[in-house]
Design a protein that fits this description.
Rossmann fold; N-(1-d-carboxylethyl)-l-norvaline Dehydrogenase, domain 2; alpha/beta; NAD; single chain; 16 helices; 8-stranded mixed sheet
Length: about 325
């Protein structure tokens, strides 16, 4: 069995460590906190993030980043997107020269507008060694071994295949594609639509409203992704439509939950205080809209979401504005 490293012992990093261990890899998991590492090693639990889940004995946790990275054939990174650059500046040079580096993150860097794979590439990792994993992947369901699928995207078929092989087991299947842009933007943009659906759910609107937002939202985020070079088929695959469906309606989705609280009248500050983990949409919405404006892409749903997040629109007023840009009838 080959050694793989996972950086980040939150819900998704720990869950993916389980996926990899159950697929036959020896996994070393880096935790920022010693008490989390000790619990994983001694009790095979990470109760703060995955309550009730037993972890495989094949996962060994440590706070020693050098020890975790040493000899790893694959390095999976699951840290908050806005801290990726600072993390890589601290330990990026410790990543073995031949290892494949896998992004489990779904966000854009606020200051630069870069996707996570682009930030990784800026730290001396060749494009052919970078892989992105995305799909309809709610951590608690996968940790409970409920069947699910994802996609590994890379410019290198060999790298994508190696990661897909390592991250496939009896309950989790990883497919491959070569559309890194579409796979990443699918995971980033669906969070914004999930917040929109959460808002109208919090207000009390029904399934017609939510279905309208989901379908028009898919059209909106597909236009955006394709303008940046994504393939249309990616946006109706696991990383696009699949992830959108899972995230938009599940109470396990942080972004849906954030939207729901906004719809119930909580402020952005209150939502951030109540959430135990980051809802990426709340920090990426402004950056996404800046990127859209640079390419003259209309994103009416995302624009209304930003107004609600920033307290500039009453959540109850949002639904009539979400699904159209003007009073003039338009083609679908």
């Amino acid at each position: 069995m080959s050694k793989v490293a996972v950086i980040g012992a939150g819900s998704w990093g720990t869950t993916f460590s389980k996926v990899l261990a159950d697929g036959g890899s020896d996994v070393m998991l880096w935790s920022r906190r010693e008490e989390v590492a000790s619990e994983i090693n001694n009790s095979h639990r990470n109760a703060g993030y995955l309550p009730g889940v037993n972890l495989p004995a094949g996962i060994v946790a440590s706070t020693d980043i050098e020890k975790v990275l040493a000899g790893a054939s694959q390095v999976y990174i699951s840290v908050p997107s806005q801290s990726l650059r600072s993390n890589l500046e601290q330990w990026g040079k410790l990543i073995p020269k031949e290892s494949i580096v896998v992004s489990l993150m779904k966000g854009v860097e606020q200051k630069t507008g870069l996707r996570m794979s682009q930030v990784i590439a800026q730290h001396g990792i060749g494009e052919d060694r970078v892989v992105v994993i995305s799909g309809p992947n709610l951590a608690l369901e996968i940790a409970a071994e409920q069947p699910a699928a994802s996609v590994a995207a890379s410019s290198s078929t060999d790298s994508a295949m190696a990661v897909a092989k390592a991250s496939t087991n009896s309950y989790f299947t990883t497919f491959t594609n070569n559309d890194v842009i579409g796979t990443e933007f699918g995971g980033i943009l669906k969070n914004l639509i999930a917040v929109a659906i959460g808002i109208v759910n919090g207000v009390g609107y029904g399934q017609n409203t939510k279905a309208s937002i989901m379908t028009r939202g898919l059209s909106e985020i597909s236009r955006f992704a394709e303008a940046f070079g994504a393939k249309p088929e990616t946006m109706v695959g696991l990383a696009g439509l699949g992830d959108l469906i899972a995230t938009s309606e599940s109470p396990l989705s942080r972004n849906h939950k954030a939207g729901e609280m906004l719809g119930q009248g909580f402020s952005k500050k209150e939502v951030l205080e109540k959430l135990s983990q980051t809802a990426e949409a709340l920090v990426s919405v402004s950056t996404v809209l800046e990127l859209a404006r640079d390419k003259n892409i209309a994103m009416p749903i995302v624009e209304q979401v930003e107004l609600v997040i920033e307290g500039k629109m009453n959540p109850k007023d949002i639904a009539p504005h979400l699904t159209h840009m003007s009073d003039t009838p338009q083609g679908e």
